[in-house]
Amino acid sequence: MISLLRIPYQIHLRDGLVPLCEIVLLGKVRRVPIRAVIDSGAVRPFFLKSHAEDAGLDLAKGEPYNAIFGGSIERGVLLDVYVEIAGRRLHIEAVFVDDIRLGYALLGRRTVFNQFNEVAFIERIKSPCVELRD
Questions:
Q1: Rounded to 5, what percent of the chain is helix, strand, coil?
Q2: Residue 72: C-alpha distances to residues 21, 39, 78, 84, 100 (Å)
Q3: pLDDT band at residue 56, thresholds of 50, 70 and 90?
Q4: Domains assigned to the chain
Q5: Alpha-carbon distance 80 to 4, whole Å?
Q6: 16 and 100 in contact (C-beta within 8 Å)?
Q7: For residue 34, what are the β-bridge partners?
């Protein structure tokens, strides 16, 4: 049986048709809601360090990581975390940085998309979504 994760998103016109979704970072202290771009061009997921701190995650347990995104390099921390996307809990490696110039977190190919066999953006419907299929 094929498992399907359907992530609804809104197309944000201000930033050039950016698909934004709601995810939740699952922490020891609390669940932190985050707006994220579903970005097929991003290699890894990127979140703010403040998201990890709000969730009660210990960034000291991660490993240093030179984050390359948006045309710049920023020092970050790579950490194993759990997120909830469209009601499904996923284990991912995410990079936590001080600043994301886009103003949104990023979901990327490694550790999110690559948990599935197929990724499809469905936009010509009333409520656009991305479908991740096992």
A1: 10, 55, 35
A2: 24, 17, 17, 28, 10
A3: very high
A4: 4-133 (2.40.70.10)
A5: 23
A6: no
A7: 23
Q: State residue 8's pLDDT score.
A: 86
Q: What is the pLDDT of residues 63-72, one digit of tens each?
A: 999 987 666 7
Calpha distance 101→46 (Å, rounded)? 11
Most distant pair of Cα atoms in the chain: their distance:
44
